[in-house]
Amino acid sequence: MPLASTALLCLVIAVSDGDTLKVRCHDDDASASPRVVRLVAIDAPEITQPFGRRAKQSMSEMTLRKPVRLECREKKGRYGRDLCTAWVTPASCTRPSCELTLDAGHAMLTLGLAWWEARFAHEQSPQRRGQYEFAQVEAKSKHAGLWRDADAMPPWEWRAEHPGWPHRRASAYQ
Questions:
Q1: Is 13 helix (H, G, I), strand (E, B) or coil?
Q2: Burial of 159 (0-12, 13-18, 19+ CB in 10 A)
Q3: Which of 155, 118, 112 is nearest to 135 (CA)?
Q4: Would 73 be classed as within a structural domain?
Q5: What three-state secondary structure class fits 36?
Q6: What is the pTM of this model?
Q7: CATH no. for residue 65?
Q8: What is the mean pLDDT of the chain?
Q9: Cα distances (Å, whole numbers) of residue 107 to 35, 92, 98, 157
Q10: Which of 4, 64, 130, 139 counts the most CB atoms within 10 A of its CB?
Q11: 171: in domain
């Protein structure tokens, strides 16, 4: 069952990695701190993992200094980050004004630069769950991105082997 969400129009001011953004939203107080957003249902490689820098670069090209529409859950993640789906303008749009129609998380799966987190599938609608799962299966079958590496380690396994990592990473935004 998908969780309730709210929509925000924001500007991406920094990209931490392939699944984490720092944004300023239009409805925020001017003195408010920027929000840190974790994309829902995907997990990109950490920066020091193979394909980690490439994932960050792709996310940066897609979102950095661009408007983004965030559909965020009411509940924050375990590190206090907003959990959101991020909608951006597709790179293929050449008009001066384009709709925010590209799901950045889904795009990362399509590029083979993130894993779909099946353990959170119950939080997605059946349609979104199918789209994400299919994007991962397709990327894997095409050996796109990290799927070129037969020994690619999912970030949750990597973090289990490096227990201090989330605390070091979180401090980058404080």
A1: strand
A2: middle
A3: 112
A4: yes
A5: strand
A6: 0.89
A7: 2.40.50.90
A8: 89
A9: 22, 13, 17, 23
A10: 139
A11: no
